[in-house]
Amino acid sequence: MTIEKLNLPWIDQKEHIRPTAIVLHWWQVPSRLSSIRWFLSALKRKGLSVQFAVTKDGKIYQLVNSPDVKCAHARCANDSAIGIEIQGFGAKELDRQKEQFNAVAELVAKLCKDYKINPEFRVSNTSQQAIFYGVTSHKEVDKYCLARRFWPKRDVHDGYVQRIIESLKSEQSL
Fold first, then answer.
1. Three-state SS for 15?
2. What is the largest CA-CA distance in the chain?
3. pLDDT digits over 24-81, tens only?
4. Rounded to whole angstroms, how far apart are CA atoms 131 and 153?
5. Contacts for 134 with CB less than 8 Å, ≥ 6 apart
6. How far apart are CA 10 and CA 49, in angstroms?
7. Which structural domain range is residue 40 located in?
8. Which end of the chain is more exposed for a tag (fewer CB within 10 A), N or C?
């Protein structure tokens, strides 16, 4: 697995998290606007950041110095989750990108191993905040975020997340 490093210069990379979860996001843009540079520009305009991006061709980009740098990708999960943006325009397109799926699965497997993250999704609610565990999508995380509870983000579909988790289980059984 090859990971190209591109640092996001507009974020402070001094704050770190103890990752317990991985949140999959859908980088939903039309193909004509699909370059990684366009994506980085969009993140900057919106004041957002994420640890990784995976393009349709399966290229993996690490956008911060270290995967445990705190990023602004999923409001309620930023303190406990590594974010991965997956390029695609619609669920059917995501499902057709086999190289990309394999790259996402390999990256998730590496992060689960490196940070000892159990892929099964669960949430621990404390009086202060929700802490996320496992592999999930942004739309699932939003169910625990008051700002998004009534209009959840359209994001990576449940079947895609489940296929990633199944690929982890089959890899662990080898």
1. coil
2. 45
3. 998 876 666 567 888 888 889 988 999 999 988 899 999 999 999 999 998 889 999 9
4. 19
5. 21, 22, 117, 118, 119, 120, 121, 122
6. 9
7. 3-168
8. C
**pLDDT at site 154:** 64
How many independent structural domains does the chain possess?
1
CATH of the domain at 141: 3.40.80.10
Short-list 27, 33, 31, 76, CA closest to 52: 27
The residues, ordered by sequence, that sit 6+ positions from 103 with a Cβ below 8 Å of its Cβ are: 1, 54, 58, 59, 60
At 53, list the tokens. Answer: 């991006």
Asked whether 64 and 49 are in contact (CB, 8 A), the reply is: yes
- Residues 84 and 104: beta-carbon distance below 8 Å: yes
Does 65 fall in a domain? yes
User: What burial class does residue 159 get, using C-beta atoms within 10 Å of its C-beta: 0-12 exposed, 13-18 middle, 19+ buried?
Assistant: exposed
| Whole-angstrom distance, CA of residue 89 vs CA of residue 91 | 7
| 174 occurs within a structural domain | no
Whether residue 46 is contained in a domain is answered as: yes
**Rounded to 10 degrees, what is the CA torsion of 118, 76, 101, 116?**
-20
Residue 109, in any domain of the structure = yes
